[in-house]
Amino acid sequence: MNKVNREFVLPNLFIPGFPKSGTTALYDILCNHPDIQMSKNKEPAFLDKDLFFKADNLAIESDLREYCQQFPLFKKKFKYYGDASQCIVFPKIPERILKNIGADVKVIICIRDPVKRFYSHYWHGVNLGLENGDINFPYVIGTLWNGVDKPIKTNEDGKNNIKAIHSRSGH
After folding, report:
1. H and E: helices and strands count for the chain
2. For 61-69, what is the mean pLDDT?
3. Sign (positive/negative) of CA torsion 40, 59, 106, 119?
């Protein structure tokens, strides 16, 4: 049984993973499950912060109470209380879970083909904006043009589902 005080509960379900590996999709699905309450913020990222822990990996009480606020108790009791912080795959985290929460936890690890994950992560990092929402006037921060593909000329279908980048000078 997970530790509980009158107002908050500690998580007993963890969804570690890597960026662009499906943790957000799984978090969203589990938010709608009747037996699961996920944290208010998808990634509380508490367990990876050394400043919240003593040298023996026991949490500082005040910081642990603040983390617990991610899992408020309602009239309904849930079977699982979940944290989907990607950082849980880092070293030290399993020991911190064991010492501060206990061994009675469930873990679902999200992984993905590394090449597809890298490609997705790259495009996630491309910051593309359109001046006044006009596809003919994009501004781009943090990407490179491949010098081969021709830029999109129109957005006639209205879907705006093609990633195309060019400068005002035509590059």
Report:
1. 4, 6
2. 87
3. positive
Measured between alpha carbons, how far is 47 from 96 in angstroms, rounded to an integer? Answer: 7
Q: How far apart are alpha carbons 4 and 2 in whole angstroms?
A: 6
Rounded CA-CA distance 48/100 in Å is: 13
pTM confidence score: 0.65
Residue 7: name the closest of 62, 106, 75, 59 by CA.
Answer: 75
What tens digit of pLDDT does each residue of 5-25 get?
556 788 999 998 888 888 889
Q: Over the stretch 155-171, which tens digit does the pLDDT of each residue have?
A: 667 665 656 555 555 55
Question: Phi and psi of 59, rounded to 5°?
Answer: -70, 150
Sequence-distant (≥ 6) Cβ neighbours of residue 145 within 8 angstroms: 165, 166, 167, 171
User: In whole angstroms, what is the distance from residue 105 CA to residue 44 CA?
Assistant: 17
